[in-house]
Give the backbone structure.
Amino acid sequence: MHSNARFATAIAVAVIVSAPTASQAQTCEDVVLGAAVSATGIYAANGKNTQHGYEFAVKKVNDAGGIKIGNKCYNLKIKYYDDESTPARAAQLVERLIDQDKVKYMLGPYGSPLTKAILPVIEKYKIPLVQGEAASRSLFTQGYKYHFGIVATSEKYLTPVIDMAANLATKAGKKPQDVKIAMIYQDDAFSLDVRAGVVDAAQKYGMHTVIDDRMPKDLNDITTFFTKVKAVQPDVLLISGHEKGAATAARQMGEFKTSVPLIGVTHCESAKIVNDFPNIAEGIVCPTQWDETMKASDPLFGSAAEYNKAMIAVHPEYKIVPYQTAQASAAVYVWADVFKRAQSLDTEKVREALTKTDLPTFYGGVKFAADGSNPGKEIVMRQIQGGKYVVVSPADVAAAPLIYPRDAHY
């Protein structure tokens, strides 16, 4: 059976992962976290990356002795359902986890559209959710009290490219307001927030947006956009369409021999553009929530580099560990920390402890604001250089300078 098919089959039947060892089973009870995660549909690739991160962290927590509350020991387990990449299905399954399966603590699905759909259910039942896979700013503006997200919010994803363009223009003796931007976005909460951040940043510099398009629902064909790009010859090209949109864009950039000097694309890793379109991918700048070269560490996982090495040992199919996997592990680590600090399994005491989280992790610091977001988390920008992802900003973590203009060979 194909690995994706195996994954879909396993997740669809609500598997419980990371069974404790025999010695632990005698002394530790289970704390079950619930998760509706995409095994099928348009978010399946990152659903799989998310599950890998969850399972790796659960095993790590349990192997380290689990969670001590008073004189009792607990092991983490996760109960999964396949949300089929469908928001309505995600909401239905989270309600099932809470109402039928009696799960009292939740991990997130992959993506902002699905998280948006489950949040009213979370609030209705007053079940705390820690999620690391939904970055849409709008998720944190609704006054929800049980939603905690560890990621940098989506309006930050491509704004560093605008800052790069402004700096490059100034260095070349030009005015930033003469920079021309072409952009295309998937019509979903995450991507529209990415767009909003870009619009604000561009306005700050007085830049011109010459193309501002939305992708078709199927994400299969954006030739109309690239025809316009060829005609107007922008200085900056920005694309946000999750893994499918990024793969379509990379393929069609090759077909159109797109030669924009600075290109920013979200979800490069999960779209596998380096593997599938190596020549086209060269020089593209990609935002990430996490990179193995980051100066971040914790007692459980060690450094970002050590986490990266350990994850690749378990999943050798990863040439590079997706940030979705790292942040999934970090979300589980937050749960482990919260249970220990709350010294209780009462959902209200646990929620109260979540509001006081101040946790260094291999993924970065986690400290929640009143709206449930993690405002200290910043986006790291990597450029594909020689087929590798190389950190080019922010300056304090950059491993190499930006190669500009982009040097792609078609």
Remarks:
- Confidence is low (pLDDT under 50) at residues 12-25.
- The longest strand covers residues 72-82.
- Residues 44-63 form the longest helix (20 residues).
